[in-house]
Amino acid sequence: MGLLAAFLNAPSIVLPCEVSEATWRGTLARLLEVWVTLGFLLFYLMSGLISWKTAALLIPAITFISGILGLLIVPESPSWLYRRQREAEAFNSLLKIRNSRTAVEKEMVEMKMLDQQDTKKLSWHHLLKMIYQKDYVMSMVISVLVPSLAVFCGFGVVAIYLPEVFAMTGVSRDQYWSSVISGSFRLLFNFIGSGLLSRMRRKVMLVSGSFTALVGVASLGAFFYFKEQRYDMSDVSWLPLAAVVMYVAGISGGVLPPAWLVAAEVLPSNIRSFGMGITNTVYTTLYFLVSKTYDDTKVTLGPHGVFWAYS
Questions:
Q1: Pair 147, 259: CB distance under 8 Å
Q2: Got a GO cellular component term for this one (predicted)?
Q3: Taken in order 184, 185, 189, 190, is the CA torsion positive or negative?
Q4: Could you report the per-residue pLDDT of 71-129, keeping only the tens digit for each?
């Protein structure tokens, strides 16, 4: 599963950017996050009803198989074909996904201009040296750090351990149905965030989403703190769910929609594929480290300390 995620993540982000028109690029690229959210939501929903083994069989059948069937009819990336001197195939691929032959011819001219800086013949060693050059280093730093925002604030941990987090709150509401509610809001804000990409500046979305998530996860930490101090929390039993929904809204609606898009857009086309590979490697490494340290950090700092650290 780890290998599968590693091979799928980067091309799943790059391909929509390469085949879509600029107007729709952000919205279409972020549909990947909608698909991921749907998988989590199905898991939350099924976990309260069936065994994990059955869920592990059903969820891939619903999401992964249908994804493969869709890929069978998707044309290859025109820019990828062009960089390998397969111009006729690139032209035909563009014809399948564009409304106008004139638009296709214009894009082919743009590809020809970009091809002058093509790096397809360079080894990974030369590409690695290129990204340390002055012209590329800042783009690479931004590409690596922006998607990492969601990792540093513990979004992966919350998604994975969400039923456990609700169980720790001790509220009477069923932990799985609370997860379903927050997962549904995550899906909703995925769609909202994807729609806002074409209307809002990337930085505005990132900052506002981060601030919203900060308030949500800090409130969750506060709930755990006062609970550990043996305060009566029955009057605010609604707070954990509200805090998680606010946290999810900030990340899913504000941070994640522009984050991966910025990571791809900021890289020059001649190093985009290689650069996104590095970004994906750093992202998954951080994701592993933050997820792996959650249990030990929770023991050391307490639940409130973990969520305040994320905030």
A1: yes
A2: membrane
A3: negative
A4: 888 888 887 787 777 888 888 888 888 877 777 777 777 777 666 555 555 666 667 67
Q: What percentage of the chain's residues is helix, strand, coil (to nearest 5)?
A: 85, 0, 15
CA distance 108 to 78: 9
pLDDT in tens, 247-272: 988 988 888 888 888 888 888 877 77
Q: What are the counts of helices (DSSP H) followed by strands (DSSP E) for the chain?
A: 16, 0
pTM confidence score = 0.74
Contact 256, 117 (CB under 8 A): no
DSSP, res 254: I
What residue type is 194 in one-letter code?
S
CA-CA distances (angstroms) from residue 31 to 53, 194, 228, 262?
27, 7, 40, 15
> What is the rounded distance in angstroms from the CA atom of residue 183 to the CA atom of residue 296?
26
CB atoms inside a 10 Å sphere around CB 82: 23
Which residues does 256 contact at the CB level (< 8 Å), separation at least 6?
30, 33, 150, 155, 190, 193, 209
**Longest distance between any two alpha carbons in the chain, whole Å:** 71
